[in-house]
Design brief:
seven-stranded parallel beta sheet, Rossmann fold, alpha/beta, globular, 13 helices, about 20% strand, 2 domains
């Protein structure tokens, strides 16, 4: 029997970042098919853990979503008890929660135990299993929460493999990261590729490999311009100085702040290629944006990138932290653009199997298996 009600708990719009965008879009797709009860964060993180611009108490924000309870707060322990009682009263067929950081381990551990007593399954949508800047104690704490799940959903083959090894009897659903569609598709890439326009988009964190990309740009033998757009996390003063030096040379544009959807859509439209030179990765919402905008991507051969990029057709895959191979890939994309190559047909063909509607169907079909 198909489930009649699904509950979702996590960061949602107007909170920023990829996890909130993913949770919000999945909720929208599920609402077409099922009744959805939603619990959202009003303030998920302390400032030291989320150093980006803080947009305040989301419960008071003018852009909150209808029929969403914005009560969860990291510093208000009673809020979790209130939300847990509300979830139990709703009696959903399952509670879906995004998982990506150890910080919520105690909350989810306690929530899962209370849900289990009422025979309500908890399903973790695993964006990562462990934090990118992880440690043994963080990993241990993460596992205490992860192992409480009744089922797992993931977009990365590597995560699915690790889940199968660690929790072989727990049901799993793998589906490629759906294509984001909130950006308005604009005209195709700039006609003149004699200077290739590159885009590095999203939070600037060390594991994303911007330093490797900057090294490639500094020594690039042709004409290239890079736009770095997004908030910077952590102390990266040396890298920031290198970016500003290239900006003074007219070879880089630095937009070191949050980029809204309208401005982001224009940035994607204005580039020839999206850059994802990650040192390690599971998946990336930025790639989902690139595919929606019919933009080729150059990405490290790690995580789910090989699953979502057809080498030489929709972009190029390079070894992580390899400046020479990254430079070579940029040259190949530039040459293909100069030869008037159209990447769109191959990208559109790949995108056809990566819709939110199909993903929502798969999620709804998966829950009765738990």
């Amino acid at each position: 029997m198909s489930p009649s009600k699904i509950a979702i708990l996590g960061p949602l719009h107007p909170y920023r970042g990829g996890i909130a965008a993913h949770t919000t879009r999945l909720r929208k797709a599920l609402q077409v098919k099922r009744e959805v009860h939603t619990e959202a964060y009003r303030d998920p993180f302390p400032k030291w853990l989320y150093p980006g611009e803080h947009i305040g108490d989301l419960k008071e924000h003018p852009d909150t979503l209808e029929d969403v309870h914005y009560d969860l707060d990291y510093k208000l322990t009673g809020a979790w008890s209130t939300v847990t009682r509300r979830l139990i009263a709703e009696r959903p067929d399952a509670v879906l929660i995004p998982w990506w950081t150890f910080f919520f381990s105690p909350h989810i551990w306690l929530l899962s135990r209370k849900l289990k007593r009422k025979k309500i399954p908890l399903v973790l949508i695993c964006h990562n299993l462990f934090d990118h800047d992880s440690s043994k104690w963080k990993n241990w704490l993460s596992l205490q929460a992860i192992k409480q799940a009744s089922g797992f959903i993931c977009h990365s083959p590597e995560i699915e493999t690790e889940l199968a090894e660690r929790f072989p009897t727990t049901p799993r659903l793998f589906y490629p990261h759906p294509i984001y569609d909130q950006f308005t598709q604009r005209d195709s890439s700039p006609a003149d590729a004699t200077t290739i326009q590159l885009l590095f988009f999203g939070l600037v964190r060390p594991y994303k490999g911007l330093d490797t990309l900057i090294s490639a740009l500094e020594s690039y033998p042709g004409k290239a311009h890079l736009t770095v757009a997004g908030e910077w996390w952590g102390e990266q003063s040396e890298l920031l100085a290198r970016c500003k030096s290239l900006e003074q040379q007219g070879r880089l544009t630095l937009l070191d702040h949050y980029i809204d959807d309208d401005a982001a859509g224009q940035l994607f439209a204005d580039c020839h290629c999206v850059m994802l030179p990650y040192k390690k990765a599971t998946n990336s919402g930025v790639l989902a944006h690139a595919i929606h905008m019919n933009k080729p991507a150059i990405a490290s051969n790690t995580g789910a990138f090989p699953f979502c990029i057809k080498h030489g057709a929709t972009g190029f895959l390079v070894p992580p932290d390899d400046v020479a191979e990254l430079t070579n890939a940029i040259q190949q994309v530039q040459q293909m653009h100069c030869n008037a190559h159209d990447f769109a047909p191959a990208i559109e063909s790949m995108a056809a199997s990566m819709s939110w509607d199909t993903f929502a169907d798969k999620v709804a079909e998966f829950i009765p298996r738990i």
